[in-house]
Amino acid sequence: MRSRLQSDGIWRVSTPPGGARDVPRIGQPFVRSILAALPLQLTEILAMAKIGLFFGTSTGNTRKVAKMIKKRFDSDTMADPVNINRVSPEDFAAYPLLILGSPTMGDGQLPGLGSECEEESWQEALERLADVDLSGKTVALYGLGDQVSYGHEFLDAMIEIYDFVIDRGARVVGAWPTDGYDFTVSQAIVDDKFVGLALDLDNQADQTEARLQAWLKQIAPDFGLSV
Ligand SMILES: Cc1cc2nc3c(=O)[nH]c(=O)nc-3n(C[C@H](O)[C@H](O)[C@H](O)COP(=O)(O)O)c2cc1C
Known about the structure:
Elements: E1 2-5, E2 10-14, E3 20-24, H1 28-37, H2 40-47, E4 51-55, H3 61-70, E5 82-83, H4 89-93, E6 97-103, H5 122-128, E7 138-144, H6 157-167, E8 171-173, E9 176-177, E10 189-190, E11 193-194, E12 197-199, H7 208-223
Parallel strand pairs: 4-5, 4-6, 6-7, 7-8, 7-12
Antiparallel strand pairs: 1-2, 2-3, 9-11, 10-11
The structure holds flavin mononucleotide.
Flavin mononucleotide binds next to helix 3.
């Protein structure tokens, strides 16, 4: 048997006495042709980042923090941040790893029309996403609040997202110590820790960068991050 590489990347194999047949060369053109033959959805998933980053916001702070997180990582690692008000159940469930951010609004509530925000947000999203299955997924939460003006319901909304994802089978990582904050009550505490990163851009904005860095380092092993 003799073989010869042609200019189109195909090996022509001569098999005496039965003539010749074409077999694909194992290499990039071959892989590309396999990918091209797959359904679009699957190729999109193969090309997708592993970490989805979704946020809700009323006045923009939680979006700003999402951008601070994303700018540390390339697009193969983390998707661009997306406002939860335009996320479908399929988008949400497509990632094995999720970072979810929310402020607390109203009286210790998630942002949304029910807490007098101007736009839909997490309140409406959790209804829309009610049937998602998050088993096998890992989730990390970050929450924004104001410990001075709302010290009796500091970061309360974070517990609603925590309960939501736990109820649907996710594992939550990234619990955060309560040291360094001055508040009266928070519903977002489980086993003496906040269920996610606690940020207060109204009173402790200068600590945001350091807290983010420490938290990303903490979740790095679970999220496959190099921080
Ligand atoms: C009307 C209103 C209600 C708020 N209620 C709470 C609250 O109950 N608990 C809390 O910790 N922070 C509360 N905050 C503070 C916000 O969570 C904080 O300002 C946050 O940074 C806003 O994030 P955003 O810009 O992404 O909407 C409230 C702020 C406003 C304007």
